[in-house]
Structures are given as structure tokens and as C-alpha cells.
């Protein structure tokens, strides 16, 4: 007999999209600075012509990928869902290639929240769930929700452990 699993219903907040986009912008800016530095070195040190051509081709290829990366972040954010009950933590992500994960509460070894500088600015935290099979994360939840979810997962995991 199969137990029906409900669809995950909770979405990520809009602030987590801002964090994702800002992270993409920072990454793209660093890559552009590296390209700029290499172009300056190519000009100053008169490197062989083929190096300049390769740099130009790589730059031309990089720019569209930076734009596509922005749109991918927005689309992925819109399709991210999570939920939790006594049996499972459920994660769903992806627009084109959807990935559904059911994490049995009985298999959870640890759960923690993490916060980097961008998440701190927007008062968000990432919830990380660790099992023997690997790590799973829910990015960018408001601090109160992240702590509540962490505590709820820990309480269910402990209750299941005591029942066994």
C-alpha cells in the first residue's frame, strides 16, 4: 500500500531571489575583471596574436552565458518548493529538469542553518539537512522560518529515533 505524498507548497521568499541575482552579478563582475586584466596584459606585453583572439572568443562566449545565468536564476527561484511533515522533508526544484527529493525524517543525521554576508544583509538563512546519502539545502529562508524549520525537523527526527 502506497502512502500518498502531497505536493510541496512553500515557496522561497522574494528576498532570496535578490540574493541569487546579486551573487550572479558579483560572479560576472569578477569574471569581467579577470578578462579586463588579461586584455590589458595582452596589450602591455604584446603577447602573440592568437592569445588575444582566444581571449576575445572566450569573452564573446561568456557574455551570453552571463545573461542566460540571470534568467536561469529567476526561473529556478519561481519553481523552488519545499515542505515538511512527520515522515518526510520534501524538496522540488528546477523548471526544465525538475528534481523532486523526499528525505525520510528517520534518515536525517543533522540539520543546521548557515548565513553568508549576502544572506545576512537580507536577514535570510540557508537550512542544510545531512543524511548518510548526502547533503540537501533549502536556500534563503527568512531567519525565523529557518530556525523554526530546523527545530521542527530536529524534533521529528528525535521523536522517530525514540520510537525505534
From TrEMBL:
Domain of life: Bacteria
Keywords tagged on the record: Membrane, Transmembrane, Transmembrane helix
Pfam families listed in its UniProt record: bPH_2
Domain YdbS-like PH: 78-153
InterPro entries listed in its UniProt record: YdbS-like_PH
Ranges that cross the membrane: 21-41, 47-72
Keyword Manganese tagged: no
Name of the molecule in the record: YdbS-like PH domain-containing protein
Amino acid at each position: 500500500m502506497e502512502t500518498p505524498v502531497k505536493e510541496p507548497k512553500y515557496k522561497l521568499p522574494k528576498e532570496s531571489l535578490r540574493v541569487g541575482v546579486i551573487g550572479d552579478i558579483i560572479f560576472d563582475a569578477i569574471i569581467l575583471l579577470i578578462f579586463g586584466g588579461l586584455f590589458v596584459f595582452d596589450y602591455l606585453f604584446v603577447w602573440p596574436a592568437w592569445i588575444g583572439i582566444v581571449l576575445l572568443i572566450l569573452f564573446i562566449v561568456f557574455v551570453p552565458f552571463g545573461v542566460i545565468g540571470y534568467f536561469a536564476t529567476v526561473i529556478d527561484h519561481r519553481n523552488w518548493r519545499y515542505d515538511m511533515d512527520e515522515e518526510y522533508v520534501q524538496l522540488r526544484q528546477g523548471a526544465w529538469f525538475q528534481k523532486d527529493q523526499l528525505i525520510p525524517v528517520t534518515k536525517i543525521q543533522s540539520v543546521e542553518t548557515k548565513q553568508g554576508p549576502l544572506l545576512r544583509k537580507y536577514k535570510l538563512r540557508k537550512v542544510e539537512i545531512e543524511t548518510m546519502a548526502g547533503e540537501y539545502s533549502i536556500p534563503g529562508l527568512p531567519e525565523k522560518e529557518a530556525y523554526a524549520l530546523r527545530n521542527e525537523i530536529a524534533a521529528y527526527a528525535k521523536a522517530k529515533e525514540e520510537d525505534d
